[in-house]
Amino acid sequence: MQVSNTSATIDRTLDVTGCLCPLPLLKLKLGLKEMLPGQVIELLASDATSTQDIPAFCKLSGHQLVATQQDGDTYIFRVKKVEASA
Prior knowledge:
The chain is α+β, with helices and mostly antiparallel strands. It has a single domain, classed as Translation Initiation Factor IF3. The chain has helices at 23-33, 50-61, and strands at 12-15, 40-45, 64-71, 74-80. A hairpin with a 2-residue loop joins strand 3 (64-71) and strand 4. The longest helix has 12 residues, at 50-61. It starts with 11 loop residues before the first strand and ends in a 6-residue tail after the last strand. Belongs to the sulfur carrier protein TusA family.
């Protein structure tokens, strides 16, 4: 977890600590659907599988992973929603 850019403005925080795979990823997808392009969602997760799932999802979906970090047992991801392709 080395991506770090703490200057991103956070528009929404989604705390899914305690949820196991695949719930953190599913809740992130739902959260992104409710946001506008350019907005940033912060996801707080405790499932270590998220460290693989979230970056892979961002790469496949085109959303931008702008920051990742770990605070104790909590993994923090900041994802910027990109414009959907037509």
